[in-house]
Amino acid sequence: MTSTARGARARARIEVTTAIKEEARRQLAAEGAARLSLRAVARELGLVSSALYRYFPSRDDLLTALIIDAYDSLGEAAESAHAAVAQEGPRQRWVAVCAAVRRWALAHPHEYALIYGSPVPGYHAPQTTVPAAARVGLLLIGIVRDAHRGPGLTDLPLPADLRPEAERLVADLAPDLPPAAGAALVAAWAQLYGLVGFELFGQFHRVVEDREPFFRHAASRLADQVGLP
Amino acid sequence: MTSTARGARARARIEVTTAIKEEARRQLAAEGAARLSLRAVARELGLVSSALYRYFPSRDDLLTALIIDAYDSLGEAAESAHAAVAQEGPRQRWVAVCAAVRRWALAHPHEYALIYGSPVPGYHAPQTTVPAAARVGLLLIGIVRDAHRGPGLTDLPLPADLRPEAERLVADLAPDLPPAAGAALVAAWAQLYGLVGFELFGQFHRVVEDREPFFRHAASRLADQVGLP
DNA sequence: CAAAAAAGAGAGCACTGCTCTTGCCCCGGA
DNA sequence: TCCGGGGCAAGAGCAGTGCTCTCTTTTTTG
């Protein structure tokens, strides 16, 4: 059974690979990225540590795999939240996506920290992560673009010294958008992660208590900022 | 010379302590928090690693000292930038403080990551860090409060479900401010760090190129958001 | 069916934070 | 001025880490 034999090997490899990722994700969720230990993963799987290197050439490669999965998981959460309100107005959809990002972050704090917190020292994310990372951004761009084509965006200020940069930016990201909206969108995107990060990393401790309505209002004001009606 | 003798001991202790912190800060700046090694610090100082524990009971305590210093350094940078434009209007002062935070962050990326990035795993900041951490926040509060007493703040929306939280918040932070301004201020504070963090941690890579004007405009829009005239 | 490739085991290297014991030396009270 | 005690450094050692190398077993392939 040559073909099944080959299939068996390949299947076993995939199984072990996902088992490693699953155990690694479990440790990541429990302890955080810097406490993720290859040896501990191997131990838990009944393997010797050196055997792990047949599947991931280094700890960083394992981390990269987890990062991509985390981006995908966040992207999927945002997309499905968006799909659930796809019939509503741009502002509702915007707030829904923001709220989904926050919810995902609260549910997966260490994974969120891995992708949007300070980079793990010595580690620099390879280009592989880019497509997965872009999903939430594309979603937000889509909402603003829909609004632009439909009910229209409110006019936004754009200082003269920012105009070239804003034009370059929309040329890359969304050529149909006005430059001011593109710049505002990118800023709002960053600010969304500021809000989420502050809540997640404890900066709101003893400052903001009732965080859900606080966040929803802030997200709605971000919608103002990008000109959503 | 009893007193000088005791003084000599104490002085030596202070000198070694600051030497440790200096070397640690050097390594922090060069390699990041997670690569900060007690043994390497000791080696560089010509000490054996165990000797270091006479000065800092653990690696976390050394980190805490560095965190407090970083907060202070950032706070001082923000305060001196504010002092330089103290005569100008609230909006200029607001943007100046934001720009100072960004500048400090770009100059001290690893220290910024230490205090505003994802928390170092296993480490939880003790209460000791709170006063130092509050300096920038107090500065921003002061600007908004001055504007409120002077030229006046523009009216801001405040949804009904956020009102109790906003009132509690200003009661703690700045009793003379309108609740909506307090809530907007806290949100803007978080968003400022979103902007800085995204730039610092590379999320703007190939998205925003000319970052200085981009940031200044975003900071000015944050001023709008808190109602500064 | 034999050769080659893949996978796991185990030892080992250089590093980490941290503890414990030993001994020195300087400071302060008698 | 002497002497005891305490602050201090040193060194060995423990348990852990990422990673490499070699050896053996198992499976796939020509």
From TrEMBL, chains A, B:
Keyword Transcription regulation annotated: yes
Electron transport keyword on record: no
Source organism, top-level taxon: Bacteria
One example GO MF annotation: DNA-binding transcription factor activity
InterPro entries attached to this UniProt entry: Homeodomain-like_sf, HTH-type_TetR-like_transc_reg, HTH_TetR, MT1864/Rv1816-like_C, Tet_transcr_reg_TetR-rel_C_sf
Pfam families reported in the protein's UniProt record: TetR_C_33, TetR_N
Assigned keywords, A-Z: DNA-binding, Transcription, Transcription regulation
DNA-binding region: 37-56
Location of the HTH tetR-type domain: 14-74
Protein's name in the database: TetR/AcrR family transcriptional regulator
Organism: Streptomyces galbus
Lineage: Bacteria, Bacillati, Actinomycetota, Actinomycetes, Kitasatosporales
